[in-house]
Amino acid sequence: MEIMHAVNAALHRTRLKAAALLFMLSLALVAVLYTLLVLNHDPNLVSLTERLLPMSLGHPLGTDHLGRDVLTRLLLGAQQTVGYGLLALLIAVVVGVPIGIWAGIKGGLIDRIMMRIADSFLSFPDTIVAIVLSGLLGAGIENLLLAIVVVKWVSYARLARSTVISEREKDYILMARINGLRTGRIMRKHLLPHVIGHVVVLASLDLGKIILLISSLSYIGLGAQPPAPEWGAMLNDARPYFQSNPTLMIYPGLMIVLVVLVSNLLGDYCRDKFDVTKEVQS
Amino acid sequence: MTVLSVKQLSIAGPQNGVVHQISFDIQQGEWFALVGQSGSGKSMTASAIGQLLPPNMKATGEIWCGGRNLLSLPPGEMREIRGKRVSYIFQDYQGSFTPFHTIGQHFEEVQRTHLTLSKAERRQQANSALISVGLQEEMYDRYPAQLSGGQLQRASIAIALLLRPDLLIADEPTTALDSMSSFRVLELLAKLQQDTGCAILFITHDLRHVRKYADRIAVMKDGHIIETDAAQQVLHQPQQSFTRLLIHSSFSFGNLNPLPSAGE
């Protein structure tokens, strides 16, 4: 009885999550369509006569301290924040996964050297390394991306390596070698598909963290530079007006919360979908 | 004609030796059985022939095949030999196939690595190989998990013999199969050996599997070959007490209680 109840509850929770995810994604779709079809403001157009306006038909979410349309900046900021987040993630995966597979398949000294390098990256907290690196390289979104890649490739390399190590002893890898395949081809055709499933799960869980990292570093002035409509930078811009116009901070803050929530939901969903180990355990 | 000639082969790990100075020859078209307990170094010998030893194991001695010493061959030339002249089948038929590739993709991979054939020719060749091991053509599009153990082992035989190798190394291919399937696999190997004329190095711990098929038997114990002779000679007039023990401990219907005689 209790087991049935637990199963039902789990099922219920899964459905609820799926519904929430669907709702959020459709919201995002509406936002994208609106951006592409309706939006006609310039996000960087300064108009001092229109500063700090409240909501109106012309400016659905009002204007900021330089008279720029807030909705326009929020929507185009999604491109910046989410776009750069995805880009950073992609580069981290493209750098990390091949290194991990290679270290795993070679083993021995190469493996040990690679993993000690990875360990030394892991021993510092993400945010600190990102702040130090983008501080050293100079403020700017490119340097911030570089810093994030440097921080994040490690976990993908480790994940790929551990998957490869659990697979490489199996006979089908031996069989592929017997059949005369080169190491590169074995990596691509026989090991990469094993790794990809796990990587997708980790990446979708990571997306939220990366977006948060970009926004928080932009907030303290290390990431996107004004007048770029990046959410963290918008939060920073709005700080002096928090008492008179709190909505200027609330909107970008809310966007960050929503996007991180969506990417976490997406990550959970992917994990439930692809992660076989969880299935076996429960 | 000698297909494979192993001379003074020793294999050693970081701490201890696994195989000590073994020598044997395999003639063309011969069924050569290497028999011994698990841990006696049979599989390591098989791995050494294809340069497939784990990185921490080292082989010394000579393994001659087609006028070349396989132990000193650079990796590029070894890739040419593997699959084409020497090919393998394993005990773990399930693990021998990449789970997310179809049987057909496994055929494609071997063919594209070693041959230059058109797509239609490749398909044709794979189909006739499947039929030759008693599988239907439909198996080409199936995934490994959709086939039974016996079918998978047949498919792996089909792939191993696709390029007409001089030597097939069968590392306990029937151990994980039920007795009916293993009988069929053995019959199939014997038939294909007659058709293709390849030599078979058959590795097993169970003399029952070789009694009917093997031409010659080598008995291995603790990394040494203690006895090599024609199969009938070894089975009926064993020279070593260990061989006698091995024969007696193989369960057979003619000798229902092997234990009393095992202690001799």
Automatic annotation (TrEMBL), chain A:
Gene3D superfamilies: MetI-like. GO terms for biological process: transmembrane transport. Residues 78-267 form the ABC transmembrane type-1 domain. GO terms for cellular component: plasma membrane. Keywords: Cell membrane, Membrane, Transmembrane, Transmembrane helix, Transport. PROSITE patterns: ABC_TM1. The chain crosses the membrane at residues 20-39, 82-105, 195-222, 248-266. SUPFAM superfamilies: MetI-like (SSF161098). It is found in: Cell membrane. It comes from the Bacteria. Its main location: membrane. The keyword NADP does not apply. It is a multi-pass membrane protein. The keyword Transport applies. Belongs to the binding-protein-dependent transport system permease family. OppBC subfamily. This is Peptide/nickel transport system permease protein. It comes from Paenibacillus phyllosphaerae.
TrEMBL record, chain B:
Its main location: membrane. Keywords: ATP-binding, Cell inner membrane, Cell membrane, Membrane, Nucleotide-binding, Translocase, Transport. InterPro entries: AAA+_ATPase, ABC_Ni/Peptide_Import, ABC_transporter-like_ATP-bd, ABC_transporter-like_CS, P-loop_NTPase. Residues 4-247 form the ABC transporter domain. It comes from the Bacteria. It is a peripheral membrane protein. GO terms for molecular function: ATP binding; ATP hydrolysis activity. One of its GO terms (cellular component) is plasma membrane. It is found in: Cell membrane. Gene3D superfamilies: P-loop containing nucleotide triphosphate hydrolases. The keyword Nucleotide-binding applies. It holds the Pfam family ABC_tran. The keyword ATP-binding applies. Belongs to the ABC transporter superfamily. This is Peptide/nickel transport system ATP-binding protein. It comes from Paenibacillus phyllosphaerae.
